[in-house]
Write a structure and sequence with these properties.
Keywords: Membrane, Transmembrane, Transmembrane helix. With about 550 residues, the protein is an alpha+beta fold. The chain has 19 helices and ten strands. The protein has a four-stranded antiparallel β-sheet with strand order 1-4-3-2. A four-stranded antiparallel β-sheet has the order 8-6-5-9, with helices on one face. Strands 7-10 form a two-stranded parallel ribbon.
Length: about 550
């Protein structure tokens, strides 16, 4: 084993020809040629003592110092770089999403939200699902605030990446936090405005404080989303991957820019790629001693991101950019609807509508009578010569009344928009965001047991709930079957016929299913009736808003005022 000097002769694999080599490097120290002042890998700021000799017969000699007796363990790395059957491809590296924001945990979060809504009348399932949703989203919000404290969310003044320190940038976990926060906010909009179960629940205060936390986080997410790319970016460092020459190539070292990789191609047997992102580890809060991973895209995300031209895609297509702007606009709209929803937390939407009308239609006399009471009120009214409550029907008053009706109607319409369009916002936001998050590396792939652990826990909760609900019915079925077998042995057919009549009255699973179907039909019919009665009540209010906006008419002829 040689321990002082090793000579490695690479023919045709380091670079193809001597002319190409001479255009990039020269004889002598290799470090002086390739070092650009920004060392990429650890301890790369000093020269390793590597010397390069170029011969006219397309042969190069690389000489380097070696210490220790384990050079044979390091030589496979050279084979990955210098193997004539392999080729070096450009690739981008960054830190992976934290495990709680991997693909399957996010999908589980979406599923639990749907469960909490569909089974809201099944107390055990709804409470368990809602508890997980609240704790998961609240934890994501706290994580966002922690990232804001540790990272500056900006851009460096030098080059597009920093191999030493990543705190000047943002952290990729914000892209895992974004869908959790936005989906939670979208679900909260109709709950805060219309849910009678929420308004009458003793845990209402907890949901209100959770809602405040979610919408504050949504405002932060909207700000970082609109400034992403121009105001801040995450630390994305360029490196190379060694792949087979038969690999579907998104580009090569001669390609201008760093093309985007399909994760299935990268991990396929045709490519058998090996990257060196794990050697890159800039200092980053909450990621001590972590190595970076390559940025690989899932097929659907890559096709949309590149607008179908994923064979050599160097950046975001116009359609993908427009979709991203559309999603951000929906987030801002959801934030606005959330602020509107908070107005009706302690009362009905009709009460808020009526209050808005009274405030915007109030005269100066109404303001005085609302602020002052008793003899002081009479004194001020007399001094202002406003004792007479008569309101002249001038053009100004008619215009003021129309304005008040319009503002109140605008609020009421936005409340209905939040109710009717929340499912659409829910689906569109999830679909679009998942397309973009498909470009970010995860801590584990979906086939890893760690990704499935939250699903197993959730299934255990649902299974426990099903057992609690159906256990009595199943036990009764087993008991009935046992009694029938025993009676078949003990009695003749005539006696068994009378005994079996009582068993037909026992509970069964089928009625439970029938009740669920009937309940679904009831919900649909109730929704249509609910919308119809609300529309009728609104028409009555529009004709005479002064009458139906007073407390005396609360529940008289229209919904509460």
């Amino acid at each position: 084993m040689v321990s002082k000097l090793e000579s490695l002769i690479a023919s045709g694999s380091l670079l193809n020809t001597a002319s190409e080599l001479e255009s990039l490097v020269t004889n002598g120290s290799l470090f002086n040629t390739v070092h650009n002042g920004y060392p990429l890998y650890p301890q790369g700021a000093g020269s390793p003592g590597a010397e390069l000799t170029i011969f006219p017969n397309d042969t190069t000699v690389l000489s380097f110092n070696s210490s220790g007796l384990v050079l044979d363990l390091a030589l496979p790395i050279f084979t990955q770089i210098l193997d004539a059957d392999r080729e070096l491809f450009p690739i981008s590296c960054t830190y992976a999403l934290s495990g709680q924001y991997d693909h399957l945990p996010r999908v589980l979060f979406y599923v639990l939200i749907v469960f909490a809504f569909l089974f809201r009348h099944r107390t055990t399932i709804a409470k368990a699902a809602l508890g997980v949703v609240m704790s998961y989203s609240a934890t994501a919000c706290i994580h966002l605030f922690v990232l804001m404290g540790f990272y500056r969310f900006g851009l460096p003044d030098t080059i597009g990446h920093d191999v030493e320190d990543a705190t000047a940038y943002g952290d990729v976990d914000i892209f895992g936090i974004a869908p959790v926060v936005t989906v939670s906010a979208i679900v909260l909009i109709p709950i805060l405005t219309w849910s009678e179960s929420f308004k009458g629940n003793r845990g209402k205060a907890i949901i209100v404080y959770w809602s405040i936390l979610i919408f504050v986080c949504l405002a932060v997410i909207c700000y970082y989303a609109i400034t992403f790319g121009e105001g801040w970016y995450f630390n994305r460092i360029q490196s190379v991957a060694s792949c087979k020459k038969d690999c579907p190539r998104p580009g090569s070292l001669e390609t201008v820019g760093f093309p985007l990789w399909n994760i299935d191609d990268y991990n396929s047997d045709d490519c058998d790629c090996v990257d060196f992102c794990g050697l890159i580890s800039p200092e980053a809060p909450l990621r001590e001693k972590q190595g970076m991973v390559p940025i690989l895209y899932y097929g659907p995300a890559l096709k949309h991101y590149c607008d179908g031209n994923d064979s050599l895609c160097l950046g975001q297509s116009d359609s993908a950019h427009n979709l991203l702007l559309g999603v951000i606009s929906l987030w801002f709209f959801s934030l606005f609807l959330g602020l509107v929803a908070f107005l009706g937390v302690n009362s009905s939407s009709e009460s808020v509508r009526n209050m808005i009308f009274r405030l915007t239609n109030a005269t100066f006399r109404d303001v005085i009578t609302a602020i002052f009471k008793g003899s002081r009120q009479q004194t001020i009214l007399k001094k202002m010569r406003l004792q007479n409550p008569h309101d002249p029907h001038t053009f100004y008053r008619r215009l003021r009344r129309l304005f008040a009706k319009s503002v109140a109607t605008l609020y009421y319409g936005l409340a209905f928009v939040g109710l009717l369009f929340s499912p659409v916002l829910f689906v569109v936001s999830i679909t679009a965001v998942e397309l973009f998050i498909g470009s970010l590396p995860t801590s584990e792939r979906s086939d890893a047991i760690g990704s499935w652990a939250p699903w197993v826990a959730a299934m255990m909760v649902l299974l426990s709930s099903a057992i609690m609900h159906l256990n009595g019915i199943v036990i009764e079925h087993v008991s009935t079957a046992y009694r029938k077998i025993r009676r078949f042995v003990q009695y003749d057919s005539e006696e068994r016929r009378h005994l079996d009549i009582a068993d037909e009255r026992q509970p069964h699973v089928e009625p439970f299913i029938d009740e669920s179907i009937a309940h679904t039909g009831y919900v649909i019919m109730y929704t249509w009736w609910y919308l119809a009665i609300r529309a009728k009540a609104f028409i009555e209010w529009w004709k005479d808003p002064e009458k139906y906006s007073t407390n005396e008419y609360r529940g008289h002829g229209v919904l509460e005022g």
